[in-house]
Amino acid sequence: MKIVRSLKKHIKKDLSTKMVLIGGPRQVGKTTLAKSFLTNAEQYLNWDDLTDRSILKSHQINSELKTIVLDEIHKYARWRTLAKGLYDKYSKKLKILITGSAKLDHFRKGGDSLFGRFFYYRLHPFTLAELDSEYSVKTVNRLIDYGGFPEPYIKADKVFHKRWQRERLSRVVYQDLNDLSQIKEISLIELLVDALPFRVGSLLSIKSLREDLEVSPNTVSNWINLLEKVYYCYRIGPFGPPKIRSIKKANKLYLWDWSEIEDKGARLENFIASHLLKYCHYMEDTKGDKMELRYLRDVDGREIDFVVLKNKKPLFAVESKSGESSISKSIYYYRERTKIPLFYQVHFGQKSYVDRNIKVLPFRKFCKLEKIP
Questions:
Q1: Tens-place pLDDT, residues 136-167
Q2: Which of 117, 121, 86 shows the shortest CA–CA distance to 103?
Q3: Which of 53, 122, 160, 323: CA 20 to 30 A from 292?
C-alpha cells in the first residue's frame, strides 16, 4: 500500500532553500517519509547507530551525497550546534532533513542558533484525504478502528494492533519521556497514561487526577506537559467570544492515537479533533497562518466541540455527533450570539442538509468540503 503523505511536496520545495525538521509521534512514519527523498543508504544517519554517531560528532559528512537525513539527533546535547555547523558549511551542496520522535519544537526552542536556517513540520497519523480520494465509508471505519499510525492501519489486524499499542506506550513512557526529563515516579506516569483515555472529550480536571495519583497538582500538570511534548496527548483551550459567559481556563484533552479510546462517542470526537488539529498544523507549517483549535462552552453548559481560528478570527465551528441526531440547540444559541461565520454538525451517518446556514453532513463529506488534508 503506497501512501503519499500530504507534507511531501512542501518538504521537497523547502529543502531547496532550508534545512527541514520533521517532528511527530513515535511510529508515525517520519523516517519512512524522510527516506523517500533519498537514493542510497549512505544518506541516512541515525544517532542511535554508533557508527553514524561518530560520523556526526566528527562532522565527516560527504557533501557529494546531495541529501542527508539525520534521525533522532535531538538526543545529542549539542545537536543545534551540529545542525548549524553542517548547514553553514554545506547548505549550497547538501539538503539536510532532520527527524525526531520526541518533540523537536521543544528542543529547538533552546536558543536562536538555528534561526533562519530551517522550516519545521509536524507529521500526523494518516487522515482520510491521504488514504482515499473517494472519502469512502470503508476507509473512515478502518481509521476509527485501527487508528492512523501506519503499521496497525495497514495490517488491520486486531491482535497485532493491541500488541503494537502496548509496545508503543512502553517506549513513549520509558524512552521518549527520559529524553526530556528524568522521572523517578515512572509507575505513576503509567497510571496517568492509563487514566487519560477516559478523560477524552471532557473538561480536564487536574484536581481529580491529583486525587487519583496522590501527587500535587503541579506534578500532574508537569507530567501532562511532558506527555504532550512526546506526542502522546494534546489539549485544546476554550474560545471566549465577547458577550458570552464562556469558560475561560479549563482545557479538553485528546490523544494522538484515538484508537486507544474504548468509549465510542469519545473515540469519534477524538477522531474529528485529530483531523482538525492536523488541518491547523498543516496551515501553519505550509502557509504560515496562525491557527488554533479550541472549544466553546458557557457557564450554563452549552457547548460546541470545536472552533477553528485563523489569525485569531473564527473560521468555522464543528459539533461532533456519532449518529444522525437533530441539530444541537447549542449551535442555534451560539449562531445568534457570536461572529462565527459557519457551523457544522458532523456525524457518521448518511444524511446531509442545511438549516439556516447550519450544515449537517457526514464526516467524510465535511473533510472533502473543507479540504482537511
A1: 999 999 999 999 999 999 999 999 999 999 99
A2: 121
A3: 323
